[in-house]
Amino acid sequence: MKINILKKGDSVLNVDKNFIAVRRKNGEVDIVPLIEDETGLRVNVSKIVTIGYGDNIVTANVGDVTVINYQ
Length: 71
Fold this sequence. Notes:
This protein is an all-beta fold. Helix content is 0%, strand content 54%.
């Protein structure tokens, strides 16, 4: 099995049975969830979380609406 989620300059921070943590070239980190189903292991693209730079603001897209939560 091969999971092709890295781009040039990226590095893997951690891997376990539930997720892969990838440090992107720009310093942000993607938490990439894994799902095991009848076809094997795959990436749950709709549940990827990006940890980026900012002022404690959480942004999520729900359909056509962007939800912003200020912490």
